[in-house]
Amino acid sequence: MSTFRALVVNKTDESFTVGIETLSLDDLPEGEVTIRVAYSSVNYKDGLAVIPNGKILTRYPMIPGIDLAGTVVRSTDPRFKEGDEVIATSYDIGVSHEGGFSEYARVKTDWVVPLPEGLTLKEAMALGTAGLTAALSVHELEAHDITPDKGPVLVTGATGGVGSLAVAMLAKRGYHVVASTGKETEHGYLHQLGAREIIHRQELTPEKIRPLDKRRWAGAVDPVGGKTLAYVLSTMDHGGAIAVSGLTGGTEVNTTVFPFILRGVKLLGIDSAYCPMELRRTIWKRLASDLKPDHLADITEEITLDQLPETLDLILQGKLRGRKVVNLQ
User: Fold this and answer.
1) Alpha-carbon distance 194 to 199, whole Å?
2) Rounded distance, CA 37 to CA 101, Å?
3) Which of 10, 106, 132, 259 would bridge with 28, disulfide CB 3.0–4.6 Å?
4) CATH number of 3-115+295-327
5) pLDDT tens-digit profile of 84-107?
6) Confidence band, pLDDT 50/70/90 cuts, at residue 2
7) Distances (CA, A) of 118 to 90, 115, 172, 176
8) What percent of the residues of the chain are helix, what percent strand, and what percent coil, each to the nearest 5?
9) Same fold, 3-115+295-327 and 129-269
10) pLDDT digits (tens, 9 = 90+) for 135-164
């Protein structure tokens, strides 16, 4: 194919545009691996990339999309060959390097993961960066001895991409999952994913947060941050741990040292963007096996490239549930 379609964001002193454009392979950046993209996915970070003040893209014009999965059509590196099915997420993809909202992509070999046995290309993007982040969160909680017998594990922002997948993964691993959401219409959805309890998100943002409050959680997966994280810190059990990966609730956390020095609480930062490749491959293998959600299809809705701009707007409004997969075939 000499030409292909992609979502392009452009910004000049006079204007800001987001739209579908027809490009050629010569428009793609340098990289050892050229991929015919089958699917991409929609993340909160992608939503920020298509607004003027999102502070995600480092240059313009740019094809956003931090996730992609597809088939290698050309490789100058012997680690991959034509016909290999692969995944590429995060690093500079969709930020300073042309991304996954495109029918073709060219990336660095060091960013590419072979599709593990047990996953299809579509399932890989139903997971995407959100799934990688959720799985890293569960992996880190387990590494810090947060086991199902220790007590309830809280998931904040539970109807979002990371939250939905974390609920499903933790439930599959046998945890007592408490899901937090402000969407009362989604309780059935969260129970279906495996949540045993559901609480309203307002319960996690009281007007006054004590330095230490009643112990409630053995662990937590928090893609929200802000005031929510401050309250969760104050209500962790002794030896508890919180895997933090997001900022939809704000970047500032007003807390004290007391949860850390009086209860031994651990705050675990989850960085899926620059996760080392060895760990990344390990997590993708787990995503194809013991951490693969039982209800992945129920979490996923497929959209087209033409539907993408509207979907990106909805994710910024907090109106999406689960995962949106972009079909680029």
Assistant:
1) 14
2) 9
3) 106
4) 3.90.180.10
5) 999 999 999 999 999 999 999 999
6) confident
7) 22, 9, 16, 26
8) 30, 30, 40
9) no
10) 999 999 999 999 999 999 999 999 999 999
